[in-house]
Amino acid sequence: xxxxxxxxxxxxxxxxxxxxxxxxxxxxxxxxxxxxxxxxxxxxxxxxxxxxxxxxxxxxxxxxxxxxxxxxxxxxxxxxxxxxxxxxxxxxxxxxxxxxxxxxxxxxxxxxxxxxxxxxxxxxxxxxxxxxxxxxxxxxxxxxxxxxxxxxxxxxxxxxxxxxxxxxxxxxxxxxxxxxxxxxxxxxxxxxxxxxxxxxxxxxxxxxxxxxxxxxxxxxxxxxxxxxxxxxxxxxxxxxxxxxxxxxxxxxxxxxxxxxxxxxxxxxxxxxxxxxxxxxxxxxxxxxxx
Amino acid sequence: xxxxxxxxxxxxxxxxxxxxxxxxxxxxxxxxxxxxxxxxxxxxxxxxxxxxxxxxxxxxxxxxxxxxxxxxxxxxxxxxxxxxxxxxxxxxxxxxxxxxxxxxxxxxxxxxxxxxxxxxxxxxxxxxxxxxxxxxxxxxxxxxxxxxxxxxxxxxxxxxxxxxxxxxxxxxxxxxxxxxxxxxxxxxxxxxxxxxxxxxxxxxxxxxxxxxxxxxxxxxxxxxxxxxxxxxxxxxxxxx
Lengths: 290, 240
Known about the structure:
The complex is a heterodimer of chains A (290) and B (240). With 290 residues, chain A is mainly beta. Chain A has helices at residues 2-8, 250-256, 271-289; strands at residues 12-17, 24-27, 35-36, 39-44, 55-59, 79-84, 91-93, 97-98, 115-127, 134-147, 155-161, 164-170, 179-186, 197-198, 202-203, 208-212, 220-227, 240-242, 247-248, 264-265. Chain A folds into 3 domains: 2-147, Immunoglobulin-like (Sandwich); 155-242, Immunoglobulins (Immunoglobulin-like); 249-289, no CATH class. In chain A, the strands form 5 sheets. Chain A has a 5-stranded mixed β-sheet with strand order 2-10-9-5-6, with no helix packed on it. In chain A, strands 13, 14, 15, 17 and 18 form a 5-stranded antiparallel β-sheet that branches. In chain A, a hairpin with a 6-residue loop joins strand 9 and strand 10 (134-147). Chain A is flat and about 100 Å long. The longest helix of chain B is centred in the first third of the chain and has 12 residues, at 2-13. Chain B starts with a helix and ends with a strand. At the A-B interface, strand 11, strand 19, helix 2, strand 20 and helix 3 of A face helix 2, strand 3, strand 4, strand 6 and strand 8 of B.
């Protein structure tokens, strides 16, 4: 009976960020004083009757959880964000905290160039049966990330075309890159400054993007930056130049050679009725076949 | 079949009185009507340069006179089956050719691609001299088709329809065509497989074929974009 009871009522703790199903919550330089979402905890199979102590929720100083809050190997101390009695509740919310409170940032501050991931953990000891030692059940499925390290600048290649320049982009295998920001300008005289225009951010899944509406036989400068998930901007790529040139496709070459075709549907007087008549005859034959 | 029966009777004549004579049943006659389905492919060079008044052949200039690749299918209804077969059908296909555009100022090749894209449609009427197979057992069936052609066409540059002086490089081209072909009846390779295929799927015959097409595709002789061609197609067909 006891065994069956233990199996049917497994003891678990689950954690989630309030208002989002994401298990990692990232923040960047602009988020230092912003609050991390409240951590919600829910227990199952646990109560005041079998708990050996209080449930603790904390943020570690590393990417993994220990059994209990502790002093991290890097000198930082885990931050407890809530202690709860299972005798009074089986779920609840942690205390609020800011990115700047993260244990991984203690001693260095938000302005440091760091990319840290701190795990959010919960644990409680419980007794599986009325006799015997207490064992620990814990949850470690959430992470808070603070990223102040810019991604690598993208590699850029330019293909000058007719009234446009195609910008080929590569993230250089940097997994943090989510977007590219491409800027272009007419190449100024040697003593002048360039007047840069910025394209809307381009997803890193896109490997080439045309800059359209450019003047042919005018030299343009193009440069790009990468953005990561918290809008850290990389340094600029190399600035490249390209000159769009008018080109002839087959149609332009045909017209230049004196072609008389004007495009559109040149339906001859007999062609359309012939086609329709033939189709009707085919359909009639098919229907007669049935 | 008849020879088999005669031989069996002759053998029986010289055998004992208890010999059982087996006479094979003649094959069922070919149904009067049916359907054909063909998949085909080929290559061709449109005779763009044949248009009167052109100062050069733009197809050759852009595409280097290389062939367009064509793939398509044809569905036909066998309307009459007697001494040969007459069918009417509908064929649709796709052909394209890509090449770099040419920079106007320098004449060099651009990084931008231009393409000629065709969607050939045709309404063919065909006569197949299939007596060669059905009566004489020769697995080659010659045939002839004449067809009304309609080909939507489009020229692109950089993935978009090319426009020159407000004229869009797209349209519909009409014409007519003739086709001469020979089909090789695959049934001859394995009659048992052919029989099983007919029983299981209703496909009475399968065949491969090669054909020569003479297409006049210039709006019935007008001085416009000439997409006429002389070309071969090859494919696989099924009669059911």
